[in-house]
Amino acid sequence: MSKRPRRESDVEYNEEQVLTSRGTVINCSIPPCHSNPISFNDYLAYEAHIVDTHNFLCLECQKKFPSETFLDIHIDENHNPFFQISKEKGEKVYKCFQYSLTGGCKKICIDRRKRRLHMIDKHAYPRNFNFGVVDSGIDPKKPSLLK
């Protein structure tokens, strides 16, 4: 159950492969940027932002996640045997995506559906957000978490 955020040194940039179109703005819609999207004028700046801010790798299954929070939740829900035991006991185990013991949301739900509703109602997540990202990770070819 180990984790390590990706480092910039892990990514090789090949400027010939980078496609940019002038006048096109790329907006980051990956949480926590989704509520106040950051805009980029070129793909290299956007890619650097993703690597620096959103690219976290599960060493157990090699899936990538948009933040350390999503990675932590993924590890708990998919690789932690104590999570499954607690779930089978009927305990609330599904943490809010903005869960934090120090200053963040402290909501823990009984199931994924209630967590989804909490995220939409209390944290203004869009209804078309890919809430399954905690299981599937992000697809580098489609970094948006909107369906």
Automatic annotation (TrEMBL):
Keyword set includes Ligase: no
PROSITE patterns reported for this sequence: ZINC_FINGER_C2H2_1, ZINC_FINGER_C2H2_2
Keywords: Metal-binding, Zinc, Zinc-finger
Superkingdom in the source lineage: Eukaryota
Domain C2H2-type intervals: 56-79
InterPro entries: ZNF511 (IPR039258), Znf_C2H2_type (IPR013087)
Molecular function terms from GO: zinc ion binding
The protein, known as: DEHA2F15532p
Source organism per UniProt: Debaryomyces hansenii (strain ATCC 36239 / CBS 767 / BCRC 21394 / JCM 1990 / NBRC 0083 / IGC 2968)
Upper lineage: Eukaryota, Fungi, Dikarya, Ascomycota, Saccharomycotina
